[in-house]
């Protein structure tokens, strides 16, 4: 499933200051829960940022998509941990091992608030950990916050204290 959200692009002073891209931000969600995928899709439809969102249903689909030649790689991958066939942890490890994928910004997007999961994904190289919110407006705020970060510059300042994103 893929959807695009487009808005008229004009580069204002604010956009230039925030370094907001005029090209769409490519986002990939890997999540096996249909309701969570729908919630995610609807949130991006309401966020006024130029995005191109692709959704896959599990870890096997994710890795097939990422390794298929010619597919657009995402700027940000939202990765659920608890998926059938291949878990989010397994995908994270594989992504970090592959040279052409290792620099993708990865946001763990999970219902788990387990300290073990948070610690393990941090150590294995994810950029941020997001506990799936149950409130739609909170989800929109979190997604907007995550996609407006320039991950190219943020990865050097990663530390355990700012890894868990909460509003």
In short:
This protein has 167 residues and is an alpha/beta fold. It has helices at 13-18, 34-46, 59-67, 88-97, 115-123, 136-147, 151-154, and strands at 2-5, 25-30, 51-56, 76-79, 105-110, 128-131, 164-165. 38% of the residues lie in helices and 19% in strands.
Summarize the topology.
Elements: E1 2-5, H1 13-18, E2 25-30, H2 34-46, E3 51-56, H3 59-67, E4 76-79, H4 88-97, E5 105-110, H5 115-123, E6 128-131, H6 136-147, H7 151-154, E7 164-165
Parallel strand pairs: 2-3, 2-4, 4-5, 5-6, 6-7
Antiparallel strand pairs: 1-3
Helix pairs in contact: 2-6, 3-4
Which features characterize this protein?
Rossmann fold, globular, 38% helix, alpha/beta
Could you characterize what this model shows?
- The chain is an alpha/beta fold and 167 residues long.
- The chain has a single domain (2-165), classed as Response regulator (Rossmann fold, 3-Layer(aba) Sandwich).
- 38% of the residues lie in helices and 19% in strands.
- It has helices spanning 13-18, 34-46, 59-67, 88-97, 115-123, 136-147, 151-154; strands spanning 2-5, 25-30, 51-56, 76-79, 105-110, 128-131, 164-165.
- The chain has a seven-stranded mixed β-sheet with strand order 1-3-2-4-5-6-7, sandwiched between helices.
- Helix 2 (34-46) links the parallel strand 2 and strand 3 (51-56).
- Helix 2 (34-46) crosses helix 6 (136-147) and helix 3 packs parallel to helix 4.
- 27% of the residues are buried.
């Amino acid at each position: 499933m893929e959807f695009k959200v487009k808005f008229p692009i004009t580069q204002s002073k604010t956009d230039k200051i925030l370094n907001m891209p005029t090209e769409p931000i490519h986002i990939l969600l890997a999540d096996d829960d249909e309701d969570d995928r729908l919630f995610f899709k609807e949130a991006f439809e309401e966020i006024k940022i130029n995005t191109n969102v692709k959704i896959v249903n599990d870890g096997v689909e994710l890795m097939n998509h990422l390794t298929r030649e010619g597919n657009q790689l995402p700027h940000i991958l939202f990765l659920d941990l608890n998926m059938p066939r291949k878990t989010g942890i397994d995908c994270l490890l594989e992504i970090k091992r592959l040279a052409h994928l290792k620099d993708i910004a990865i946001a763990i997007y999970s219902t788990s608030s387990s300290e073990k999961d948070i610690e393990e994904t941090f150590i294995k190289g994810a950029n941020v950990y997001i506990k799936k919110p149950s409130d739609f407006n909170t989800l929109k705020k979190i997604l907007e916050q995550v996609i407006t970060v320039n991950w190219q510059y943020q990865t050097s300042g990663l530390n355990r204290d700012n890894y868990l994103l909460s509003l």
